[in-house]
Every structure is written in C-alpha cells, then in structure tokens.
Amino acid sequence: MVFNLLSLFAMNKKHLLLFVFSYISFVCNTHAESYAHDTLVNVLRNEVQFYFDKLKNKETPAYFISLRVVDNKRLFLSSDFGLSSMDENHTRILTPQVRVGSPDLDNFAYLAQNRPSSRFPYERPSTSLPLDCDAIPVIKEVVWNGILERYEAAVKIYQQMKASQKTNVTELDSVPTFAPSAVETYYERPYSEAETGIDKERFQKYINDASRLFKDYELTSGKVFLDYSLQRTTIVNTEGTVIAQNRKAYRLMLEAVAEADDGTPCPLYEDIFAYSEKDLPTPTELEDKVRDLAIRAEALSKAPMAEAYTGPAILSGKASAVFFHEVLGHRLEGKRRESVNNEISGMLNQRILPASFQLYLDPTLTTYQGKALSGHYLYDDEGVKGQRVDCVKDGYLRQYLMSRTPVKEFTGSNGHGRAANDRDPNPRQSNLIVETTEPYSETQLRNLLIEELKRQGKEYGYYFRTVKGGFTTRGKANAINAFNVSPIEVYRVFADGRDDQLVRGVSLIGTPLSMFSQIKAAGGESELFTGFCGSESGSIPVSGTSPMVYVSQIETQGQKAIIKSKQDLISPPKTTEAENTGAMADSSLIFKAMEDEMAHVCHELATRHNTVPLFVNYVLERKHTSGTESSGGVCVNKRKGNVKNSISVHIFLGDSLVTNDTGVEHHPQNIPDEIGYDRIRDAFRSKSEIAYQGAVQRLDNKRTHLKQNPKPADNAVVPEFKRMPPAVWIGPSALTIPCPVTDMEQLSNRLSKVFSDYPELFNHCVKVYQKRVDYYRLTSEGQKILQPDTVFHITARASIKTDGNEVKTEYYRLHVGGINDLPSEDALIGELHRFAEYMQQKSRAKAVEDLYIGPVLYEDDAAMELLAEKIADYSHSFWISIRNQSDRKHRYLGKQVFPPALSVCQLGNDSVYNGVKLLGYRQVDADGTKPMTLPIIEKGILKHMLTGRIPSLGCPASTGNEHFDGLSRTLETRYTAGVFHVTSNRPVPYSKLYKRFLKAAKKAGLEHTYIIRKNRTSPYALIRVDLSTGKEELVEGNYNSPSREQFKRMHAISKEENVYNLDPSGGKGLGIISPKAILLEDMELDITPNRARHIDEAFYELRH
C-alpha cells in the first residue's frame, strides 16, 4: 500500500492521527487473525504480558521478558558399510529471557549473553514444555517456573554487577545493554503430517546402499548419515513481537577414512544440504559421490607427509569459505565482553582485505548460485528480522554482526542474534558470502602462484582443496590472536610445472591480520560449505561460500604420524565368513564373530609381536533404553529406544603380580544398530589394536612407577590377576519383550495427574523408563557368558513452598525388573498421593536446631541405608590407586564390627524373598562363577570378605562377585557386592521396639526424641516425638550419621523386614533384606537448619 506523503501531511493533524492509528490497528488485527487458533502462541502472549505487568513494579524491575519455544522433531539415520542405525526424538524447549534494571544497565551488561563466568555464575535457562500444545495448565505452570528462575537469577546477577561497578570501571559502563528493535508479527501455520512425513525404510535403504559401496575400497570407515529435522520456533516478547516460523531441512553427510602405511587415519567428508527431499542426490548421483570420496581417501592415505612450509598458496572455494568463517567470521560477531581483543576491533573503516573483496552475511538467502544455504532464517532468535550485513565493503571493515546487546561500536541489532534450542542468543554467523569484483580464472591464479614461487625461490607452493575445520583464539587486549585450520586434502604445486602432488598432515597456522594482508586475488566461481557452528550460544546451522583465493604468504606446520608403523598393528584376516546382518542377530552369530576375531588377534600378537597376553576380554553390550516424562497428565519428554550396540576390549599384559591395569577407563566403541559378522570382527580388531598399544604403554609406566614407589609388603604378594576356569552360560535375551513406549507414556500421563489434585505443588513430573541389556562376554580363558539384565523405573519429582518461603524438592523412586513387577496402578496412585501429602506436611514443618543425645529410631530406608553402607564398607578390601595400596579393611577380619546381635549373609541361591523378586540374583557372575551364599558377619564379628576375579587382602579367591558394571561407560566387569540378608538372634516386633524406644528416651529424662524415617512416599523425614503426649511431628533439619562406635551400641532391630533392590552405582551392593527398624540406644544427633533456595512469596502468588 503506497501513500502520497505530501497529501498526508496536508491533512488535518487529528485526521492524520486517526488514519495512522486505524491503519496500524488494521495491520495488527490482520496478523492476529492468522494465529487466533494457535493455542501455544496465545498462551505465551498472555503469559508474557501477565508476568511483565507484575514484575515491572518490583524493587528490581523487569523491563523486558521474552519467551522462545523451539519444537524440534529429528530423525537421524546412519549407515556404516551397509549396516544401519536410527534415532528419533521430539523435544519442545522453552527458553525464557528476563532483563532487569533498564536498557542502560541490566543483568547482561558484562556477560556474553548470560554465559557462565567466574564473576557471575549462571545456570542453563531452558526447560521442557508439554509436547501437546493444548495442555494449557501445564504450559502455564512451566512458564511460571521458567520466568521465576530467570528473574531470580537476573536479580542476583544485576545486584552483583551494581556492586562491582562501585570498584571496577570498564569501558562498557557507558554502553547501553539492550537495543530497541521494531515490533514484528509473522506467523506460519504448523506443518501438517502430510508435509512432514518421511519414508524411513526407503531412506534407510538409500543410505545403506550408498555406504555399502565403501566396502569396494580399502577403507577403515565408510559411513553415510541423513539428518532430517523439523523445527518450529515461536517467539513472543513484552514489546509485542510475535513470531512463529518453521524450518524443514535435510542434511546428508558422507565419511570415508583410509589408513596410511604409518597407521594414521586419513578422513574425507562430504556435506549436502537441502530444504526438500527432491533436492537430495538421486541414488546414482549419490553413488558417484561415494565412489569419488572413497577414491580420494585411498589416494590421501598413500600420500607423503608434508613438512612445515612458508610461502604462497591457493585455497579452493570451499577451503576459503571455511577459512573466512573461522578466522574472520567469528571476529565479526559483536559480542559484548569486559575485555576484548578480536584483533580487528580497532579497524573499523580500515582496509583488511583487497579492494576487490566483498564479504557479507545474509540469512534471507535460501540459495546462492543454485545451491541451498543452511544458514537461512527470516527472523533471528530474538524475533528480529534477518537482514543482509555488509561486513567488508571494497576491502574495508564496515559492520559487525549484532544481536540486541550493544557493543562499543554498534548499538542496534541487524538480525543475527542466534542460539541453540536451550541457550540465550548471541551474535552469530548465518550465510557468509565472499565475492570479488575482479575475478581471476583458475589458470590465472595458478600463474600468480608459480610466479611468486619463482620470485621467492621456492620449489613448490600449496593448493588447499578441502578443509575440515579449525579453531581460533581471542584473548585480552595485549594477547596474541591466532588461528589453526585443518586442511585434509592439500597438493604441492611445483614451480617447474610438474604434476601436482597430494600430501597429508598439514596445519594452516598464523595470525588473522597477517594472513588477511597476504590475500591478493580471488577466482570467479564460488564453492559452498554447510555445517554446524558451535559457540557460547550452542550449535547452529551455517553456510559459507567463497571463490578460490590466492595468498602470497601462508605458514603451515607438519604433523607427525600419530600411531606406530603398520607392521606393529594387527592385520585383518585373509578371509571372513559370509556376513549375516539383522538388528536382532542371534547369540550364535555374535559369539562366532567374537571367537574368530579373538583367535585371530591372539595369533597375530603371538606370531608378529612375540606376545602372549595374560588375558584378553571381549564384551559386546546390546542395550535398549526408552521412557517418557509427563506432567499434569501430558507428555513433556519421550525417548523411543532402538537397540544400541557397543563393544569393549581389555588386554592384560605382564604377570599375575604386576599387570598393566591402572584403573584407567577404556571407553567403549559404538557399532551400528544392525550388526553382522564382519562388522563385529572389524570393530573388535580395531579396538584390540588400541587396547594392546595402551596396555604396552601402561605396563611400562607402571613398572617404572613401582620401582620408585613399591607396594607395601603385604600388598606386593597379592596377585593383581587370577586365572579362572572356563565357563559357558547363555542366559535368555532381555531384548525380546520391551515395554512399548506408548504404554509407558499412558502410564506416566495417568500417574502425573495425581499432582494436579495438589495446587500447592509445582515443578512436578513423573518419569517412566526402562533399560534392558544383553551382555556378551568372551575371554581368552574360555569364559563365554550371555548375561541379561532388566530394570524398570518410576520416579516422581515435586516442589513446594514452605511457610518460611523456601523451596523444597523431593523425589519418589521405585525400580523393579519389568512393568509386570510393578504394584497395581491403584497402589501406585495411592503412593503418589501419600508422597504429595508428605510434601504438604513438609511445607509446614518447623526448622529445628538441636544437639540431641539419646535413643534414635531408624525406620525403613533409613535403617537400610545405615546397614548397607556399613556392610559394603567391611565386606571388601578396595585398592586405592593414589596410595598404591589397599584400604586395609582386611585387618577387621575376626574383630567385632557390628553389634553382637547382628549377622549378615550374602545370598547366592535366592531369586525371590517373601514374594519379592531379587533383581540382584545371578545364577552365575560375569566369570561364570556361581555367587556364594556366605556368612559375612556372625554375631557382629567380620568372618568373610568378598571379591570378584581380582584377589584382595582378606579374600584370595572369587566369591562370585564379578559383575557387569552396567552403569559404567567402560563395559568393564568389576567387583560388586551381591544381595545381603541382615538378621538378629533376638529381633523384636516393631510395635514392641517402638515402645522400648519411647521408654528409653523417657528414662534418659528427655522431653522429646527423634525418628529418622525414609521410604518412597516420605523420602526424607525427621520426626520429633513429644514424650509427654506421644505425638509425632515432622520437622526440618540436617543431621549426622552415626559413628561406628555409636552403631555398635545398637539396642535392637525389628522382626519385620523390608526387601530392597539397590542401584549398584550407589556402591551398596545389588540388594539387601533389611529390618524395618533399628534402635540405636546412645546416639548424638547434631541437628542444624537446612539451607534451601528462597522464593519470593509475591511471585509465588502469581501462579494461576
């Protein structure tokens, strides 16, 4: 709509104002109608204004609030030599931003967008929203909690900065902290299912067929990835901006790795980006790209290593684009800091590139010269319209990339405030475009290079074809700025006209201004790179395009081969059996591959290295994890699980008294979801090479260390390794019947509705998740074990405001073997109601401070924890690496460590106790040894200790306690306590024990006494009992655990028992059958007040 400005100004002023107001109202209403039916947009608009109206009048006022929601659905397909993997996830992340103070000084004044710092620490600001947009009450609850946390953090940071300003003056003090921006309204309707559907099976075949082609070449890795993402970003703020925009993207990635004769890996990559499925390569086009990449990787592996070099060079268009992104692009990001030296900060309006060079960033472009640009967006993550920014014009530095946080030189945003889903925006790059007004042909550029080589007397120069990335450093004002870029395909260009020679192992180094000053010319055709860039505000998609660039002087450094020569490694077998693939490959295939490869590796070590390992251990883990999280009856997080596979190798060298084992973690290697004979063998062979090399080095280091720091005499005679007899035990797979995610989602939704009956609770959720694992183990001693493991968890969380305006958060936890082992749903709902009622009582509990001496009754989990911790402490002698000796707990054998009435036994034969399944029961341990039923403590005397394969002081032989450490990332087996049973020769019924407890307290002349009671529904309860009335009162306070001497003065335990399945990561064993209650007769409790987070009562009342 175009208006004649003269006629407008000729109007009566009143009529003019009415006209302008009517026009603005018309425009806004038109936009409002477009999102009138979008629940999420309207809830966010209403909520952000509601909280702004309240917080703008606080003592420390909020002057700006924004809410950004990123709904991201992602399908990630990968294929490794024709074997596939798949991951799917759906998240909806809310990131509020609250600014307090004023635009002249707010909580972002000295921070890189609230990035954590030593002066002003800050936590990540995001939280999950319900995946269902219509769940209005839950959305409002999450928004309230998110704004509360951001406001509280903002006030704290703002107050710290105000105090800091009194003693620290910086150049930023006079620079505003927030820039005004136009109010924007832009709405795209959400994608329909028809617009976003993808044929997973077809695309899996597409990439499998492509990656299988890599097998035709001598490669160590040949992978194809497809990343399909659907993202919807919704932004509202208190200025009136409303943005709802979509992004659908496909990213296809190729990886080929060949190995050089010296053992150095030589990787090459290809990255293809598209906004539409039809723009992806056809299968034939993809095959051409795969084969080209493989051939180039093979050639690279045969290329000689480069030496350090100084002289002229040419960078290809793609290499130039990466160079400009890393070295110049990051220095163009106008980030506010207290002390900055990005080396170009003082060069505004000065020439930094040749006069023919233009460099700009333009997020509005979707393509450039017909190629899709991944850095495209219409509005940035602050709701500011994206715009072209001409950073370098005719060689002169003219502009920075800006967000709404000003810097000294520029005070307004140009639409480049960007962030990952869960971060605050920073100035970041988008689509970087380099152009020249004086393009040279490739031949002309090569001639310039050769002329310069001859002038400098150089035999050769360099042509950089591909670059995989790099890093750049920026320090304080007096620091040296530098960069290091990693070219992977580099050619020597000879001055005498010989054919170009491919070399490898080059690093391009230097300082930015020095490098910029040597850029002399550019080509005409541009090349593109696409990818993701990481920085303080997270990982974001970017693109860069540039023509070929000639540089008269560059500096490189050569790299040494990082692995020993190839003849020192394990060669592949000459032949392998026919491959058998499948996501549910049977155990016979898996063990066959493991057996054949172990035999091959041991033969190679013996014949080529004259080494017979003391022990070789192969583990393959197949794991399914899935689960959901719900709040208020709707799902906020969901994880659909596929079976994931990983392998680990441990090789022991040395002898039984001194091995290479130093406690250093051996990280496992992931292999595709779909597994086959050849791929299993390849993975174990590769991992065996790494394990063997590490074992040699660690054994040498350890022997040297022991010469200078010998073990104590009694430790020195204890073997570090003990051989075990062969054993075969194949258990039933745990992967055959996982609980469907839909069932878990429905259950978590129903259970989470319980908390809706308690309006004073907030930050509440219920999580339901499962882990099902098959451990395959094969050793050189003949242990062949398939050990299944399953666990099913339900956890709940809730917070509440106390009468003292503190926030208390507690957790409900339950874990069983599977969904069928759960209590009935009615029973679960009843427990969650009791948990919620406990939280209500917790909010009213009085804080106490008391030095109490007298009897204390420990009940349920409190009794179990007291016993389990002390049993675990005495049942095994642990090695303390830092001291180079054991913990010497073996000296307690034969001595009284527990009260005389107590006995403890490890159960080896019981799978069920009183109708409760014991999850810690194992028919055999990881060595195939049957766990012993063994008395540990008899009438308070320590009789026996436990161990696994590795002997310890006090236990020279395995007791069947070598278990798979399922929660470790190493896939190692290690000692783990089993299931303990605690008994007494004179237990007392609980009712009688309770009376004894009160009688003992009265006899001591006390007015009150204490019960420490913990269970699923009352996770942390300190009970004060009034001895005059017998009334129990929940109170608040921290308290100490009993000492060993106090524990030994135990008066009695209850006859009633509880059965606990424990999380082995807690170090207390796999389970314990414990008395319901323990009475300690003479206990000293030093009860002190809890320190908890305070909440503004007025803000709490804003919940609605």
UniProtKB/TrEMBL annotation:
Keywords: Hydrolase, Protease, Signal. The keyword Nucleotide-binding does not apply. One of its GO terms (biological process) is proteolysis. One of its GO terms (molecular function) is metallopeptidase activity. Residues 312-557, 855-952 form the Metalloprotease TldD/E C-terminal domain. GO terms for cellular component: cytosol. PANTHER family: METALLOPROTEASE SLR0863, UNCHARACTERIZED PROTEIN TLDD AND PMBA. This is Protease TldD. It comes from Paraprevotella clara. The lineage of its organism: Bacteria, Pseudomonadati, Bacteroidota, Bacteroidia, Bacteroidales.
